[in-house]
C-alpha cells in the first residue's frame, strides 16, 4: 500500500460523514471542540488526529452506526501509523564494522597453556594422541587434584544453598507484591464504561501557550493542533497558564446507564512557576467553549471543578447553554464529554482528577491522569513571551510583534 493510501482512505470516510450531516465545518468543529480549519484538514487528509475519540464523536454526531464506527476506527488506526512513520526521522545508517582477519588460520585451536586439565569424560583414543607428548604429565594432575577440588566444590554448593534459602523468599515478595485493592484469589471486575482523555487541546483549536526551556532559535515553529502532543513531547513543553483536558466517557451497555456523580481535583505538588520562556501557538484566536465545561483554579488551597456556562455555535446564532452540574448518565449510545480548564498564575502544579461513578449496585472512583503521570500546568507571569513570525520564519517577542501580552 502506498504511504499515503491509508490517510486518503481515512479522509474519504470523514468527508462522507461530514457530507451526510450537512452542517458547516465551523458548526461541527464547535461540537467537537476543534476549529473549523482543523476539521477541514481531517477531511482533506492533510492531518490525521492523534486520538480516535474526536473522530468517534464526529461519527456519533453524524449518525454513524456501530459497523461504520468500527470501519472508521480501523481506517484511523492505519492512517495514524502512516502519520507516525512520516513524522519519525529516518534512522542514521551505522557503517558496518568488519572484523580484522585473524592471524591464526585455525580459530578453534586453543592457545597453549601450562598443564591444561584434560576432559575426564573423554575416552582414551591412542590414534588421536600426539606421539611427541608423553601421557604421564597429563595424568599427574588427575591423581593429585581430586581431594582439594571436591572439598572446594562441596563448600561452594553449601554456601549457594544457604544463600538461596535465606534470600529467596524476600526477593519473591518484593518483586511481586499483591495488589492492595483486590482480595486474594479474586480479580477486579471491569469498569462498566470506557474513558479516554486528550490533554493537548488548544483554546478554540488554535490558541495555547507552552513553557519551554529552550532559546527561541532552538524551538520549532508551532505545529498543527492535531500534532501538538508530538511537538510538546519533543520540546519537553509544559502547559503555560492553562491546560485543557477533555474526558470522554462512554458506557458499555445501550440500556444500563452509568451515573457520573462528581469530578474532584487533586493537587499532588506545588512549586514556584518554571523560569522558562513562554511560546504562544498563535497571535490570539477566540473560540466558544462547549457544554459540560468545568473551570479549575489551581492556585486555590483546595481546587474544585466548577461547572460553567457553555455556548452552542452550531446554528445560525450562538446561544448560551446554562451550566449543568453532576450527576450525568452515560450509555454506549449516549456518551458524555467533560472539558476541564485548569488555570494557574502562581505555581508549577502537578494534579490529577478523580471521577466518581455508580452502576448496577456498584460504586467506584476512577483516577484520571496524563498517561499514568499527573497533569502539569505552570504560571507564565513575568516570563519572556514569544510568538512566531511566519513571514520571517522565527520566534519574536510580544513587543516586536505589536502584541501586548
From TrEMBL:
Residue ranges with Pro residues bias: 107-123
Ranges where the record places region Disordered: 80-143
Any one Pfam family match given in the protein's UniProt record, by short name: HTH_31
Ranges in coiled-coil conformation: none
Keywords: Membrane, Transmembrane, Transmembrane helix
Domain of life where this protein originates: Bacteria
Record's protein name: Transcriptional regulator with XRE-family HTH domain
Membrane-crossing residue ranges in chain numbering: 147-167
Ranges of biased composition (kind: Low complexity): 95-106, 124-136
